[in-house]
Write a structure and sequence with these properties.
The protein has 209 residues and is of the alpha+beta class. It has a five-stranded antiparallel beta sheet. Helix 4 packs across helix 5. The protein is globular, with a radius of gyration of 19 Å. About 2% of the residues have low confidence.
Length: 209
């Protein structure tokens, strides 16, 4: 994939432009403990020693490493696993993998942020579980010239293919879903079901035609 990165940032390490740095500062700063530098060491394995490291290749390899080497496990509990725990367990949810990627990128001095939204799953189009049936999470890394580039370690996706962005934040805790309470008699409320359908324009035209 051609990320159209500025020449100065094609190889790692690089320094963000002085005009960009103030806006990126909060997304470069590490947000979670890594007392023994385990996440930093894990990230460093993707940096070539003694020769230039292509920035795009570094981040793609990191993304694919989580996709291929970590086990995905749905977890209904609220919150996001600490990145260090995800690294040690080698398992987690999409939000756990996104956060680990963010902290790994930040350990390399790169700006990264959390993305919440949906993913379109083509082979589920037309079924009752379209788009995975729930929200999805991934991350973005800021690369000069290319801007905020999407990295989905859960599915090994680089770029916005099939990813539908709803919101971005520097930390998952800033992107929690809406919530509320119900005031009334228990007998007034029997049940509630929620279904998320993600379809293409072609599918919508076919159903509406």
């Amino acid at each position: 994939m051609d990320l159209q990165i500025d020449e100065r940032a094609l190889t790692y390490p690089f320094v963000y432009d002085a005009e960009e740095a103030p806006d990126l500062e909060s997304t470069i700063k590490r947000h979670y403990p890594d007392p023994d530098g385990e996440i930093a060491r894990w990230a460093q394995q993707f940096v070539k020693i003694g020769q230039p490291t292509e920035t795009g290749h570094l981040l793609m390899t990191m993304c694919y490493a989580i996709h291929e080497g970590f086990a995905y496990a749905r977890r209904m509990a609220h919150g996001t696993q600490a990145p260090l725990e995800t690294l040690k367990l080698r398992r987690g949810t999409c939000r756990d993998f996104a956060l680990l990627t963010m902290e790994a990128a930040r350990s390399l001095g790169l700006a990264a942020r959390f993305v919440t939204g949906y993913i379109y799953v083509p082979d589920r189009d037309g079924s009752t579980t379209l788009g995975g049936g729930s929200t999805h999470a991934w991350c973005q890394v800021y690369l000069p010239g290319a801007g905020w580039v999407e990295f989905d370690p859960t599915n090994g996706i680089v770029g916005n293919r099939d990813l539908i962005r709803v919101g971005v934040a520097r930390d998952p805790r800033q992107a929690i879903p809406l919530w509320g309470s119900y005031d009334g008699r228990a007998s007034d409320f029997e049940n509630m079901s929620v279904q998320v359908n993600v379809t293409t324009d072609d599918q919508d035209a076919k159903h509406n035609g």
